Structure formats: C-alpha cells, structure tokens
Amino acid sequence: MPEVIIEASALHKEYSGFPAVKGIDFAVAKGECFGFLGPNGAGKTTTMNMVQGYSPITSGTLTVFGMDRRKDHRNINARLGVVPQENNLDPDITVLENLLIYARYFDIPKSVARERAASLLDFMSLTDKKDERIPKLSGGMKRRLMVARALINEPELIILDEPTTGLDPQARHMIWQRLGELKSSGRTLVLTTHYMEEAEHLCDRLVIMDGGKILTEGTPRKLIKKYVKGSVVELAMPESGPARVLECLKGIEFEHEVSGSVLYIYTEDAATALDKAACFAASGFRHRQATLEDVFLKLTGRELRE
C-alpha cells in the first residue's frame, strides 16, 4: 500500500456556528495529484486552510506526514509548499529577491538559497526576469514565480489553490507541464481548481464537494463513466416536454437531466440514442464525449453560485 501523506477523519470546521466543512473523510497517497473540486462555498478552500495549518480544526482528526496537524505545525510546515489562490509576492523587490527572502523563513543558508533560486527560475522559465520587479511581470509569470517560491524549501507536499486562474492557455499548459514533472519526481500535489479540464489532466484522484460535504471520490475517468456514461447528447427541449423523447429511448441504457431548454442524455450508445430520437434531434442537437464538467454540473447543479 502506498504511504499516506494526508489523512482526515470526520474533519469538521465551523465559523461562528456555521458549518463550512461537515465531517469529511479523505486520504492522499504519496506521489499522487489529488484534487478538490466544488462550487463557491463548497468547503474546499476551508479544507485546504486546515491542511496548511492556517485555520484550526473544530473537530475530527487530520494528520499530515503522519503527524497531528494540531500539534506538529513546525515539522509539517518545513516539508510543505503552498501556492495560494491570490498572488502575495512583494512588489518592491525583484523576482530573485522574492525567492531569497522567502528562503530565510526555512533557515536555508544564503549560498544554498541562491543555488536553489537559480535552479527554480530556470525550471519555471524565469531566469531572464530575475532582476525585474513584480509589477512588470505578466499574470502567467507571477503564477510561475509563486510555484517557484513554494519549491524553495524542497517540499514533499505541494498545496495549489487554483494555480492557473486567469491565465491564457499557453501559460496554463506550461504550468501543467511543470506540475507533471514535479509529480514524476515523487512530489505529492493537492490541487483546487475551477477548471475541469485542469483537474481531468492533472489529477490521479479527486473529490467533488458541495455544502461542506464530499459528494463523490474517484479517478476522473471512473467518475465520468459512473455518472455520465461515455457520451452526451444535448437536445433542444420539445414544447411538449421530455416525456416523448424518453419514451423513444426505451431499449438502451441511459440517464437524463433537464436544464432550461436543454435535455441532456447520458449514454454509452449515442448513435442508437440519436437514431431513436431522430425526429426530435432535427430541431437541434449536439453530440460529444462526456467530460468531468458534466459530472460536476450533474452533482452540484447548474444554478449560478456567487
């Protein structure tokens, strides 16, 4: 069995009597990328804050590297790297100085810090920006520097809270590549993201949270197969409603969902579904492969969360 890096049991967090996390259980194995997905207010960032030690646990147990999160803050944090959701780089100093000053928090000798900083800037393709101040960097450069800073203490576990939010596709894919290299080197990654493609691309396993609870857990591929089959057929809703369409689909295995003016049909046999519902498809349809986003929307709903 792989070594367990993070383990939570009946983990609960309240803010002034409001339960933000409601007794969840999960475990993260060494060397995997584990994802937390959920709409705004689901409890995923609160969970990450407890793992990082930023927020005290209300009840339950949480161990990191086999140590109690309530008692062993210093020993855990020495082996932990964090990329927070918001950029908090020092704007008044250079890219290189941001790394060197951060290294002091871990009592890393100056000569070692300089060597690591140079290596990390090269790893994140920032060497030519080492003498620039932060305001002159693009959004993608700032996020890459945040990742580099999180690695200065050579952590075994890296927490990434929405690491590519707001980045263009090129910057996003570059960070994905670097995170993949970190995982290949044996690091453990814990990721929160609103990008389902990112979770599907990076995560070995993930949980989907809503209302402070874990709704489901598994690999991206297994969750897609379990909840939305292999394909999705989107049909414009007939004026008479979905009943007649669903009657036509008898004889094949499928699930369905109605949202607004669209009927979603989840099935492994999209060709037969389209053939059986051909008269309804004529008014407008779309056939595509099922994705993790379909799972997410099916479990957490399609209404706007703010």
Question: What is the chain-wise order of helices and strands?
Answer: EEEHEEHEHHHEHEHEEHEHEEHHEH
Distance between the termini: 41 Å
| Sheet with the most strands, sense and barrel status | 6 strands, mixed
DSSP E strands, number: 14
Which residues sit in consecutive blocks of at least 5 with pLDDT less than 50?
Answer: none
Strand content: 25-35%
Structural class: alpha/beta
Number of helices: 12
By CATH, the superfamily of the largest domain comes out as P-loop containing nucleotide triphosphate hydrolases
Roughly how many Å is the radius of gyration? 23 Å
Which CATH-level-2 architecture of the largest domain?
3-Layer(aba) Sandwich
Outline: elongated
Q: How many structural domains can be distinguished in the coordinates?
A: 2
Strand arrangement, major sheet: 6-7-8-3-9-10
Helix content: 25-40%
Average pLDDT, all residues: 93
CATH C-level category of the largest domain: Alpha Beta
At CATH level 3, the topology of the largest domain is: Rossmann fold
Features:
single chain, 306 residues, alpha/beta, Rossmann fold, Alpha-Beta Plaits, 2 domains, 6-stranded mixed β-sheet, 4-stranded antiparallel β-sheet, 14 strands, 35% helix
Plain-language structure description:
The protein has two domains: 4-218, Rossmann fold (3-Layer(aba) Sandwich), CATH 3.40.50; 230-289, Alpha-Beta Plaits (2-Layer Sandwich), CATH 3.30.70.260. Helices cover 35% and strands 28% of the residues. It has helices at 44-52, 73-77, 95-104, 110-123, 139-150, 169-184, 196-202, 220-228, 243-248, 270-276, 278-281, 292-300, and strands spanning 4-15, 18-29, 33-37, 59-64, 67-68, 80-83, 157-161, 188-192, 205-210, 213-218, 231-236, 254-259, 262-267, 285-289. The mean pLDDT is 93.
